[in-house]
Structures
1.
Amino acid sequence: MTVNGWIQILVFIALVAAMARPLGGFMTKTFNGERTFLSPLLGPVERGLYRLAGVDAKAEQHWTTYAVSMLLFSAAGMLLLYALQRVQGLLPLNPQGMAAVPADLAFNTAASFTTNTNWQSYGGESTMGHLVQMAGLTVQNFVSAATGIALAMALVRGFARTSARTVGNFWVDLTRATLHVLLPLALPIALFLVWQGVPQTLAGAVDATTLEGARQTISLGPVASQEAIKMLGTNGGGFFNANSAHPFENPNALTNLVQTLAIFAIGAALTNVFGRMVGDERQGWAILAAMGLLFVAGVAVCYWAEAQGNPAFAGFGVDGSAGNMEGKETRFGVAASALFAVVTTAASCGAVNAMHDSFMPLGGMVPMVNMMLGEIIVGGVGAGLYGMLLFAIVALFVAGLMVGRTPEYLGKKLEAKEVKMTMLAVLCLPVMMLGFTALAVATDTGTASMANAGPHGYSEALYAYVSAAANNGSAFAGLGADTLWYNLTLAVGMLVGRFLVIVPMLAIAGSLAAKTRAPASAGTFPTHDGLFVGLLVGVILIVGGLTFFPALALGPIVEHLAMAAGTLF
Amino acid sequence: MEAISKKTGTGKAGRTQAGTLLDPAILGPAVGQSFRKLDPRLMVRNPVMFCVEAVAALTTVLLLRDVATGAGTVGFGAQIVLWLWFTLLFANFAEAVAEGRGKAQAASLRKTRTETSARLLGPDGTVAQFVPATRLKPGDVVLVEAGDLIPSDGEVVEGVASVNEAAITGESAPVIRESGGDRSAVTGGTQVISDRIKVRITAAPGSTFLDRMISLVEGARRQKTPNEIALNILLAGMTIIFVIAVATIPSFAAYAGGSVGVLVLVALFVTLIPTTIGALLSAIGIAGMDRLVRFNVLAMSGRAVEAAGDVDTLLLDKTGTITLGNRQATEFLPLAGVTERDLADSAQLASLADETPEGRSITVLAKEKYGIRARDMAEMHARFVPFTAQTRLSGIDTDGTVIRKGAVDAVLEHVGARDRSRGEGGRLAVAGRGAATRTATAADPAERELLAIAERVAKAGGTPLAVAQDGRLLGVIHLKDIVKGGIRERFAALRQMGIRTVMITGDNPMTAAAIAAEAGVDDFLAQATPEAKLQLIRDEQAKGKLVAMCGDGTNDAPALAQADVGVAMNSGTMAAREAGNMVDLDSDPTKLIEIVEIGKQLLMTRGALTTFSIANDVAKYFAIIPAMFLAFYPQLGALNVMGLASPESAILSAIIFNALVIVALIPLALRGVRYRAVGAASLLRRNLLIYGLGGLAVPFAGIKAIDMLVTAAGLV
């Protein structure tokens, strides 16, 4: 580890923290329907959209209606994306003449982009035409992210409101998230990327002759526009197969910093929105602090592991001082690659600027743990906040009784219904992650796709299902995922990991909104101080983490111990 | 906890000190109960322990198969199976011990519910027939005479009698029960000692107070409380999570080229699921109710006990709770031209026949301060004029002399201020405020002076009592409310706990404010009417607060029903007892504070043991995971941070620890964790330290110690 490396990491953390409050203030106003500096410009557009869609922006929805709207919208989006892929050969803007995407892959991809996962069983430049990239994938990049933000708003309103029947209007939240938050932020980032050299063109690939005289096809396309929302919306689906490791997606250290910042920007700001909406910004800071603690711990372990490098190399006379550079871009180095890996899995982004498969065992374990916890460390836009709040409910229920009162969070009593729904939401992740991995490693169909033997091959399969169910979408690589088995099971993992978390979460939002809010007193559990942050982190690690301890022991942990003993996989 | 048990011990109702934890009378039957409770139909109520029972049964079958086929290492397997059953028995034992304490009380209550026959009265009021008490219907009227047991709950409709209620309250001094008013309720199973009363039965057979009390203390129809249900869901959810974590291991192991035995998987599963809290959860609930019962408070539901812990606002009646029951005369304040002694003399005369505590205190003060001895009324041909609601005066008429004492405005009316007061718009407000507004307008200098004195007394929190003789104002007696010793500190403690206290009083606002300040309550409701009380509760509840109050009168019933925790005094009316969700058998309103503490303690005990149980898992993982995979991944031996002797001893130690920790925590579950009246933040810090960090650390030491013993004893 170097001072330079740590400075990069600390600068990143400082910038995220600095952005949270102003962006949070802006988003709070936006979702409360108040005027912002963008209102004069976007207000008429927004109203026009409502008129066009026949939405009454003033009509609020009960949580069930909200959930049905969200499900219908997602189903329609998924269907459209599936159809686009299946008929792309007949559609314009396809300069490379890409053929129809096979059914299982198209299903997997549709599920992947609608659930904000952006798992890619395909190579972008060799599978998708420009139209599918733009009208299909990029559109879902926007709306799946906006859906996540909308859902978080519904839950926050549940906490903020008293004796209310409704939790907001899905269509309004969706529109505002896209129009007022994602678009205005994505636009300057896209322009910045274009300035830094990221392509933005509708032209096809360029054929070139290299210095050695070999012929090379250089893929081009509308990359910058997709790149911006890929980060901002924590989507992570790359235009190119190599994702943000590709120089056309992420040309230099500056774009790398902007991209990592974009991943965390909205998620971190949402904690501030939460604080503001419940009337006490400290509540938001406490949540962000818990996220921050887990994040810093993850970065430290990952950076440490990568900086150590592989002890086996010393025997070959290789200078190990640069750390583990396998699978990393020299323009980013160990620190920025480790940071990116932790950020992208802490949030639900899944973009990568290095190959996680090539990380050291413990370095690669950190992204896995991040996702196993449910991506609550800043997390996916919206999803991170509501995931974290679900854990807060568990934490308060476990320990809240210790102050001698029925557990409550922000004055809302946590009762059987909330606990039931929280457990439902918390349960589906381990079921999908461990269940499918167990099936995959026990069958020849599953093991045939693994590029490596032993615990490393096991980690590849585990990583895939963890990534899918957590809606991350990053891959450990090394796993040939474009098979019928993996396409279908991963798609199921993604859909369950998204919607079976969301629906119970909305039920909690509805139930909380209907409750009265007990005023805080000296007898209530303080949820804005260090004690709460520590408790929350402890419960996340014990409840969320211990579930996966056996699985991790058989993967990265044993691999690490074996490596120390001189055996590599 | 110390504070509570001490009070119970010294309380007048030490009836149900149901022995210590090690009472053999309870432990003996509890052992038997532990086995009976293995019945899966009972076990299924507790999802966590039901899971343990299922896997225990499964491993038993597997073990028997191994014994039959002679396969495997039977010795190790047998020990694991044995400890699984022990885990279940320990859990059942905890519950049985908790129930046993209630059962002992129920048995003593049952003795009092002897079969009596009742003298049923016909419509004409004569004894129509003798019927067994169990056949009495609500509405029947029975005659009960001295020596009889009252056959069922009812309302005295005629007569007055002294009743021994020891069967219910444990208090042997008889109480007066009479028709009409707030002391008309009688309870079945209590005994009439003198006189005879006619009682209209109000309870249906089988649902009398005594019946309910028996079933409550016995826990026969114990419903899970809302919080307990929620906690059970959480525990069930965690159990499912660990099912997944454990059930996927064989596949992972097979991939790695090894295998893991069912027995080991079961051991990991049982140690991971929250068995500690699962085993003790119902014992904690029963013990919480039991603590209340031993405190002579009957909660009609566990829900009420939980609600007590959540209370934000306590409504406390001033009289009897905050102040000693009675006001006492502390000073004679004569008008100009009247000596203090004259005033004292007249005041004493007027109070000679006044049997109210206030009246007696006037006589005593006059005697103590001026040596004026009480005189014989008969000698003086005196006629006592009792207090009536109309005159609001009392006094004495002797030969030619008329002395009256009473509320200031009543006395002013009496001496001729009637016209002026009417002119001000009807009924005058009670002393203080009325006096203040009138001071300026009063024409008569004596009247003005009297009002000024009265105002001074009222501002000091006292009650001014004016005295007039033969139409001439003499002065004012200062009646003072005596605030109970130590009550101020208790309110400060409540404030620390985040609970607001509101004093309810019929006094005028000025007096109320002075007493409120002296007692240190947060707020007060002066000139309280039942309607105002009800409104106050509704207002607090609208703000999201939970309210507790106590009351005894029929007019308290709506407020008792509205309050989240309504404690009815046993001495109160049937209506009040029906409306409240707790009954205080000692009729001591101060207990409301302890009831809140008991409620909090119950919730805290649950939380502490849940936290402890979950924190335990870390060490168990470190014990079992390396042991489990050592055969095919020897590198994982590095995770054996406790340095346990062998895989078998590690697994066995973990499961033994898991079982023994239940037994070790039974006393804590029954006694409840220590409660202190401090803020939530410091409570939490303390409990997190003890049960959170303690829960992390203790099993590391415990498992290591057991491992050493197991190895030394050569069990594996």
2.
Amino acid sequence: MEPTSTHSASTNNDNLRKTQSNSKVIKDSNSVLNRLKSELKQLMFSQPPGISAFPDTDNLFNWVGSIAGPEGTIYDGLTYKVTMKFPSDYPFSAPCVQFQTHCYHPNVDENGNICLDILKDKWSAIYNVTSILVSLQSLLGEPNIDSPLNTEAAELWAKPEVYKKQVMKWFRESNNKM
Amino acid sequence: MNMGGGEDYSNSVTSETSKDEKSEVEIASKEEETISSVSGLEKEENPTENNITEPQNVSTTAETAPVSSPSVEASKPGDTTEGETTANAAQEAQITSQQNWEYEQSIKKEVEKTPLVCLTEDIQKLYQEYEQGSEVYRQKIMKLAERHSKIRRCRGDGNCFYRAFGFAWFERLMDSKDHHLRQSALKSLADTLPLLNKAGYQQLVYQDIYEEQVEKQMKAVANGEYDEAMLLTIFQTDEISNYIVLYLRLITAAYLKLHREEYEPFLGFEFGMDQFCNSSVEVMDQEADHIHVIALTKALKVPVEIAYMSGSDAMEQVNFHEFYPDEDVEKGTVPLKPLVLLYRPGHYDILYRRE
């Protein structure tokens, strides 16, 4: 068996790949923008309680959002600001989500970075702005103590009174700076 | 279509192989815990074996394969004994999910050197991969070559089943030129919208993908606007190709969710169907198993035959599994000829039957 008609390979293939890269750039941003517009529309029609989000400026790729601490938890009554930066291949990759208000929490570091599986290896295109914020809201009340970014907070979680003091201290300091 | 000589292509594959090996060593040295498993496999590896399948096998962990999977059992074609496989699995289990994720990212970069879908190659090329390797595989490929003339490789990025299925399906419709067949395919595709809705997916997740990508491409195929080169361009374009993969993943998940009583028993005790779909179907780059194949073929009413090649089975025999969506296909009343895929542990490619 000799290879016959099978490969125009490198020449043909290289050409194919060159032409596609141009069209990709244009199409990419279009479908990402469409998706983000749909998400915005959905949020405007039905906003889950305690959650809001809106594009930061004219740039649809940068959003600011807010999350109210769930009722009956240590975070009850506190509202946290977050930023969401969407990658150019969204929704194939997760947005970069960060707390802007200092959030004293086992799964949030001092720079506001968040350790949440759906924002990393468990990310899939079915998640969106709303579901991310809802997940973050429940993360506030139900931290994952086993893999903490803030070990001190993880240790103090068992002592609600001391923990609450820390939460309030950082929350106030952070709001004063803003 | 004008197809020229292929020497250059095979050369480029060879040179990529050596590059891959080099950088895999670099990766391994960064990830101490994985060194032994990776390099151990490398040594046993047939040096000419195509690099496409390697990263997949290495990255297969218990975590990413909740369904009892042939890819775990036979993580290396032919030469791996059961004892070694168990040891590797234990080592991999020690790696934290974060390390695992970083490791998979670095492997991903290597895998990305292969086009998402390649041009067809003579089946002989597949044989050459194993010339200095597994005898079992050579025998099986000889057997395979009796009825199959060509192979079309897909990138081993964990999406290969969906991508191979998508390409083979579109190509079959393109080649058939049968108006009725094309219309019924469009109808099957349209029927997936209520399926997704019923399964609880939000419109914003699937509606645009359906209209702007999948249906649009299939209509172009149905209208005879595409030839092989164009279809290949479509499937090599990351965004379009990945949206098609994503849509097929969503259909698979939706079908499984709506038939959960039937399929949940196959998942093992710790998994509910929603959790399974969340971690193993909806997420890009997660490999497909029997259960995914059954769901997708049924949801789209597309018959598929898969040649399973692993080093453990009897020589001179390739097991074909028929995934026929319903009895109509067996009766021959559905005119669509089955798509033919080749499965090697952890990877799917497309096969072409001799006329």
3.
Amino acid sequence: MAKTKQQHRKGVIPGWGLTMGFTLTYLSLIVLIPLSVIFLKASTLSWEQFWQIVTTDRVAASLRLSFVSSFIAAAINLVFGLLLTWVLVKYDFPGKRIIDGLIDLPFALPTAVAGISLTAVYAPTGVIGQYLDRFGIEAVYTPLGVVIALTFIGLPFVVRSIQPILHDLDQQYEEAAAVLGANRWQTFWKVILPSLVPAMFTGFSLAFARALGEYGSVVFISGNMPMKTEIAPLLIVTKLEQYDYEGATAIAAIVLIISFFLLFLINYLQWRTSRKYFIH
Amino acid sequence: MPQMGTKTKKQPLVGVHTESAWIRFILTGTALLFVGFFLIIPLITVFTEALKNGLEVYFASVTEPDAQSAIRLTLLTAAIVVPLNFIFGIAAAWCITKFQFPGKTWLITLIDLPFSVSPVIAGLSFVLLFGAQGLLAPVLDSLGLKIIFAVPGIILATLFVTFPFVARELIPVMQAKGSEQEEAALSLGASGWKTFLFVTLPNVKWGILYGVILCNARAMGEFGAVSVVSGHIRGMTNTIPLHVEILYNEYQFTAAFAVASLLAMLAIVTLIVKGVLEWKGVVDGKG
Amino acid sequence: MNITNKRKSKGLFFLLSVITSVALVLSACGSKNESASSSSEGDKKAVELLNVSYDPTREFYQDFNKAFASYWKEKTGQEVTIKQSHGGSGKQARSVIDGLEADVVTLALAYDIDAIADTGLIEKNWQQRLDKNSSPYTSTIVFLVRKGNPKGIKDWDDLVRSDVSIITPNPKTSGGARWNYLAAWGYALKKYGGDEEKAKEFVAKIYKNVPVLDSGARGATTTFVERKIGDVLLAWENEAFLAINELGKDQFEIVVPSVSILAEPPVAVVDKVVDKKGTREVAEEYLKYLYTEEGQELAAKHYYRPTLPKVAEKYKDTFPQLELFTVDELFGGWREAQKKHFDDGGIFDQIYQPK
């Protein structure tokens, strides 16, 4: 195993130096250097100050809300996104191409517009909200509203991650499975799904990460009530309004660290599962 | 019709890879319901609001000089940002999927990081770096360069926000493809660039396409980070999303949604582009 | 060996060309911007001002800029164009601190200009440089209620009733909302003869009736007007008038409480910037023009209370008389108020602290 790895690196494929060099340079210039400034700024606080800021009830509540609702939204997207991709790739129905194009809408729409439109739709006076209201479900200005907004903005990640893989998935495997007597469900579960798992992980982690940082659309639909529907990015803005750059960067740093480790975990899992399925 | 081409190619054994009609119906129905709730109804809201006062008002609000300058700035930004992140995406995906090295998961996670950074913080980090009180302020001052509250700042912020798209789309695709084909081409004597152009690229074109589409859409739609570094000067440093916000805050709801609908239409334009590429792909594949 | 070298140099060339093109584009954009904003000598060349302002002044400055441009042209023969930037007051101040080259700032509260002054961009005594604490126009906080005032809301006391739902933005993110909060606090102080504990209880009860804390003033207006949430919107007087005119004359009415706060949105020339750009003369004149009859007329038309007695007299029917207190009188200035009420752990936070 170790030997093949080594061979691989030194093997026939060229471009290691160039691509790795470029990747690291560009990554440092655009992402790492700017982000390190955040930590630099936060580090002007003493450890006690830092700890005090990030453990106050309000900050803790907002972090909890941000992480939990991002997770729920990413999970919803994972399930429905997979279904949607499946339907888009495998079936034919009128209007399919338009729906395919609409998937990117959450990116194209400025987040503020998305927030306003979603609020309008899900408010008790809105197209969908009035029915929810009848069942006593309050969507806007509750944590549910936060989840709705985050689901909206995360959907394209899951669909667009799975789509190319499903698109290119060799029909032969499915056919082979069918010939060998597997029923459709078995084929999906044992043949198709495993090859989609890495892409699903990717989609999930991207949707989750994106949801954590989202500000623009959520502030319109959440109601911003302290302790209840206040998300972490809003607290960052709140600190900035008080010219408290250190406090703002402290919260930002804690969100960054936690999300880095969550992403790391997801990526690690993805790498392991993909090694299992794509070992050569 | 492009679909038909793919369809006939894809369905030699009818019944084997498709479900019974009612399962298909239920799955499609559920998917459409989800899309309806989360995408179509909000989209219709945008367009009905935009056209509430008639086409004339609609065109007036998208052709007004401030809107035009916002559109120009947004296009310029995307034209610079998308190619750069495209090149980065290919380089990163190449070195991550074709080679084994320690710390690979770390690298992938670092590439993901810009997504989880609140856009406000992304903007702020550039302010802390290039702003008047920032770390690089003395250098910029002596060079007479302005980055923040000018176009370069907007481009940098957009680069940051859309940084991972192409790379993240490509990595799973290239990973699924493995390296055998490249190895074969290389052992047959093809050069590295040739192998890349004629073996790798055609293999991952869907991943690239989706990555570029997403990158472009997000580059044009980004609000939070750009808002921090733009300075909101009308007719100068406003992008389309910022212009939408301004209009909205001026109670010009119709105009705001009209300009926003431009961005929604962008999604539909990219769809057409994608359709054309798909169609070309089918034709080339046959010829 | 030869081939790999060639390959490498090709790649390197590619990399280099990418980097140079980025640098070129970035610097081109940068320098273009630079030349656009610094085309101002003392002579008759066209001059450009940047006025960095807060949200509700958009409509007013649109008109005022036109008026000033023709006034300046007539007086000096010089063309002047005024660029506008609007946003939340605190955010705008931060942009100026971080390098947005504003010639003048016209913000929602003195605290934000103080913050700019703290960095040395504006002289510390800025508030004494112009009349009326550098506030050429004023406003106050009023109630916007639904047509016919179904809940019978007449004064601050009605806001603590449990059946009344109030819309006001978050004071921590919105400058306007701080005026709302202080207005309520001031009323309570007067009512309870200066008892701070009672005042805190009163304000806490008001905020208990707030179902949504929007992040900005205009967001709050939208919640009230478009989503039809809440019975009363606490708003700047000019915003309330604007909402009625723009969004539905037949749907809302204004209720003026017995006591409210005198909101003084201040203006200042940004010294460092005007000296660098050589625009001091025109920038100062711009602000002074706000105090002239023409400027005051325009302010009154956009429902800011004029300070010039002559114009105030003319518009006295528009603006109902009520007892007004200032921040300096009751709170000892903005810095004090900010620290005590709105900073982290301040009274506003305590209201929301779980018991």
4.
Amino acid sequence: MEYANLYTYLLDLLKTLCPSLIETIYMVFFSTIFSVILGLPLGIILVITSKGHICENLNINKILSTIVNIARSIPFIILIIAIFPLSRIIVGTTIGSTAAIVPLSIAACPFVARIVENALLEVNWGIIEASISMGATTFQIILKVMIKEALPSLILGITLTIINILGYSAMAGAIGGGGLGDLAIRYGYQRFQTDVLIATILVLIILVEIIQYAGNILARKFDKR
Amino acid sequence: MIKIINLSKTYEQDNEKFEALKNINLSIADGDIFGIMGLSGAGKSSLLRCINLLEKPTSGNVFIDDTDITKLNGKQLRNFRKNIGMIFQQFNLLMNLTVFENIAFPLKISNVNKSIIDEKVNKLLQIVDLKDKKNSYPSQLSGGQKQRVAIARALASDPKIILCDEATSALDPQTTLSILNLLRSINEEYKITIIVVTHEMSVIKNLCKNVAVIEDGQIAEKGSVVEVFSNPKSKTSKKFTEDIFLSSSRRIVSDGKLLKITFIGDDAQKPIISNMVKNFNVDANIITGNIDVVQNIQLGSLIINLSGEKEDIKKAENYLKEHKLTVEVIENGIC
């Protein structure tokens, strides 16, 4: 291939990839935000209602824990289809990246809850006890002690969530969600354009690397232990 | 004034009941440094935690001044706890906050004005001698420095009482001493009542004015430190004060009577033993002796073996008792 040809070839490839990449980032970004908004409080409640913790309530704990386990055991591809009616109510359609955000957020939410739960359980009970002895309220203990102390683990957990959602988003693409997964299937699988498939994989690898790297740096910045 | 009345604590796990504290009655005067001593598992930590209700007593009352804290509701209790500082064996500092932020924490959660916080924390940093560590994180500090931060944090809300839960057990002897000195100066300067839970004899000896000995969830003995150490009555305090040579000296002596004599204060300087030997027809073989300083009072103990006629030994023993010495028969080879 000549130099000029290679240039136009790469430009074409980029033109094909770019809109899909933007769609993927759009889906992953908002799904992460919504899943954290839903999953963080859920994870906090799972911890503080557990045995011997600051708001022990074993009934609530058991109910929430069961819901989380059930939600986590449904395969994502089935969850998307099952959630179609909900997507239609919330965004008015079941097709496109915006519609995919609904099942992605819901699927990632119990995952986030468990990640948050694990991170918060790591916080030394002695520190919580010390803040109780200082007269801290439950809200202050959660916000200023537990979350503050667990911040590095929480950041790493959310990094893991983002990468997970990125993987799920490819599956959402398979049923009309758009994004890089959709691109890979349409070009690479249905039209046998292996180069597009490889380019997609390369972009995904780079994306995951960037997310993990940023997460690690951020976690280290907040970790003074 | 802290008054603990008929306090009991029972733990229940898998339908098995464990009585950690049984009917405890105790009063601690304002400005005291009070030690709660006991072997591990005796219930001393549970008792301390009942004073700020980190442990909820199963029954009984805890009065601090005139407030029965077991009757307070959630918000009242939270506010009341600000009068009681607490320090722990494992320091329990917030690892992701600086020294300054850690000390400021109790003030921040009480919504104290920022300029007041600055002023107060800087003063506290000076008291605990950590001005240069202001912006360090706990992981950069030594154990003793961490405990100093914890002490400053406990002082931040101007408490009337400070509870110390094995506060020096994770520190080396030298650092322990400096922490004890700091606690004593805080007690003297700010008249804060300090309650110390420990299994270390040196802490009680160097710091406390009064002590209670806990055995199996009950108070086995209480009184001033000098009283308890000069004339230990409970199993635990005897064990704490027992001379390390005692068990070996038991083996050395085959005949005669092995006595442990305890002197307090000036008696330690009088030649009572040599007078005894002169006046009665007995031989006194000194096995081991030791002079200890408890609360600035000399406390001597001497282990001697008396041999001679049974009658003479009896008279010699009475002579010692007449001079107000505590005489304890450890081994009697004569009968």
